[in-house]
Amino acid sequence: MSLIRLPELLNLLGGIGKTTLHRWEAGGKFPKRIRVGDRAVAWDRDAVDAWLRSRPAVEVHCADAVRP
């Protein structure tokens, strides 16, 4: 099992906040954290990847894009 720590996870999720992540976990909308030490947690990378694949694709448009 590969683990992913909090800073990398938040970056992978597009820079969401810790409060949002906690809310998703508490609501059963995101995989639960795994305690890896007295003061350390991580997430199962395979479970996070599966969760990401289950999400609908979103197309992002930049309002400041230069149009020809």
How is this structure best described in words?
- By secondary structure, the protein is α+β, with helices and mostly antiparallel strands.
- The chain has one domain (3-54).
- 38% of the residues lie in helices and 18% in strands.
- The chain has helices spanning 6-12, 18-26, 45-54, and strands spanning 3-5, 34-37, 40-44.
- The protein has a three-stranded antiparallel β-sheet.
- Strand 2 (34-37) and strand 3 (40-44) form a beta hairpin.
- It is globular, with a radius of gyration of 15 Å.
SSE arrangement:
Elements: E1 3-5, H1 6-12, H2 18-26, E2 34-37, E3 40-44, H3 45-54
Antiparallel strand pairs: 1-3, 2-3
| Silhouette | globular
Distance between the termini: 48 Å
Helical fraction:
25-40%
The largest sheet, given as strand count, sense and whether it forms a barrel, is:
3 strands, antiparallel
- Placed side by side, the strands forming the largest sheet appear as 1-3-2
Give average pLDDT, whole number: 89
Number of strands: 3
Extract low-pLDDT stretches: none
**Count of the domains:** 1
Structural class, by secondary structure, is alpha+beta
> What is the string of SSEs from the N terminus onward?
EHHEEH
Q: What portion of the residues fall into strands of 2 or more residues?
A: 15-25%
